[in-house]
Amino acid sequence: MNPCPGCQECALARTRKQMVESRGSTPADVLFLIEAPNAADEVVGKLLSGPEDRTLIRICMDAALEAGMPRFTIHVAPMVFCRPTRNASIENREPRSNEVLKCMRNVMRVVVAVQPKLTVLVGKVVADYYKDELPESISILAPWVLNKQPARYNTNMRNLAEGLKKYVKGK
Question: Rounded distance, CA 169 to CA 163, Å?
């Protein structure tokens, strides 16, 4: 899903190779809101294309098992639909405030279309911008943090499992 085809709202439009679409079921039980596309996502044009994204997929599967929910539908959307890089290099950077704010209405279009029972804010940056906009949400650490600090994986997985039980399963 691309809620903003041809967008030119911020400086990311000048440096992007292509916009990245959100992906998954519409409507969906759970919406994962992630920070930004990575290099692999930008090449393919879809989220969750890079090897580091396996951690997000794994935590989702583990949380589903923990919650006793073998099946539920998901949708994954970025906080900005263009990949932010440092000075047109290949290195990723955090989205700037003005970029996030310009893209916020596009993210909210995805939220309206997806109609999630639960929104998972993936990473501190996403939580900082969206915890007030999306009060029926939970936060987990970003996959790159969990890869560097594996001891924190189980706590985050259980937090997600509790969210699934409360908002999706209804217990």
Answer: 9
Q: Which two tokens stand for residue 144?
A: 């790159």
Q: Does the pLDDT of residue 153 top 90, yes or no?
A: yes
β-strands 23-24, 74-78: how paired?
antiparallel
Calculate ∠ Cα 85-149-156, nearest 5°: 95
First to last CA, the chain: 31
pLDDT per residue as tens digits for the range 75-121: 999 999 888 887 766 778 889 999 999 999 999 999 999 999 999 99
Burial class (CB in 10 A: 0-12, 13-18, 19+), 51: exposed
Residue that has been written with the tokens 């700037």 in this structure: 96
Which helix H or strand E contains 137, and what residues bound it?
strand 137-140
Q: Do 39 and 18 contact (CB within 8 A), yes or no?
A: no
CA distance linking residue 50 with residue 42, whole number of Å: 10
- At 52 the three-state DSSP class reads helix
Q: Which domains does the chain have, with CATH numbers?
A: 12-169 (3.40.470.10)
d(CA 46, CA 81): 10
Please provide the size of the chain in residues: 171
